[in-house]
Design a protein that fits this description.
about 220 residues, mainly alpha, Arc Repressor Mutant, subunit A, two-stranded parallel sheet, 12 helices
């Protein structure tokens, strides 16, 4: 905030301050003076600890009221599960190129995590998973091996519930039920084929279905 600092360089524009709850008392006073002048425009982000810091007296109440004039709540990834996969795809394209892809199972693995570290954690997992994939398709095992923390409990019912919620939030043209069945078929058939070493008869046996049913599912998977 001193001469030639960020505030001076932002004069006439907007100054973004991250983790404002970490400002020491002397800089809180400087920030309050800046807010009173109205130049530059201040946009600040803070963690959930800010209100607690005000209660403890570690953050100025008058500064808090100024900053909270127009609050915007940005949901965490755990509150916005439907955004996890689109964000991960965008990150993967940026980190590994536009041709990089997640498998269906990898996307399911991404949805099964709790993401306490939000987008920063997601970016780290995508980066590590892409490196593990070595330029190929990012599979579930790459995602599961990346970043040890952050997995949600991940019971089958919980994972399925997240899938349903995602589809209900953004209903596909073919309908929620059809999309859910297609997704389950894709995961089940792909995993069975992997376990069967690509032998379709064995995969059908593992799934408890006949060959014709398996072939019909594969045909639909190739068309959707």
């Amino acid at each position: 905030f001193g001469p030639g600092g960020a505030a001076e360089r932002a004069a006439g524009g907007t100054l973004y301050l991250k983790d404002v709850e970490r400002l020491p008392p002397d800089l809180q006073a400087v920030l309050l003076r800046l807010l009173r002048t109205g130049d530059p425009r201040i946009v600040a982000s803070a963690g959930a600890e800010l209100a607690e810091a005000v209660r403890r007296g570690a953050f100025r109440d008058d500064l808090y009221r100024r900053l909270a004039a127009l609050p915007i709540h940005v949901p965490s990834l755990s509150e916005a599960q439907a955004d996890v996969v689109p964000l991960a795809r965008a990150l993967l394209a940026r980190l590994a190129g536009p041709a990089a892809r997640f498998s269906e199972e990898a996307e399911a693995a991404l949805r099964s995590r709790a993401w306490p570290g939000n987008v920063a954690e997601l970016e780290g997992v995508v980066r590590e998973a892409a490196a593990r994939a070595g330029g190929g398709e990012v599979r579930a095992e790459h995602v599961e091996a990346a970043g040890g923390a952050g997995r949600a409990p991940g019971t089958p019912d919980e994972v399925l519930g997240r899938w349903v919620e995602e589809l209900l939030d953004r209903p596909p043209p073919e309908g929620v039920y059809r999309a859910l069945v297609d997704r389950l078929d894709r995961v089940a058939v792909t995993r069975a084929l992997e376990r069967a070493g690509g032998v379709r008869i064995r995969a059908a046996e593992l799934l408890g279905i006949n060959r014709n049913t398996l072939y019909a599912k594969l045909d639909r998977m190739n068309r959707t």
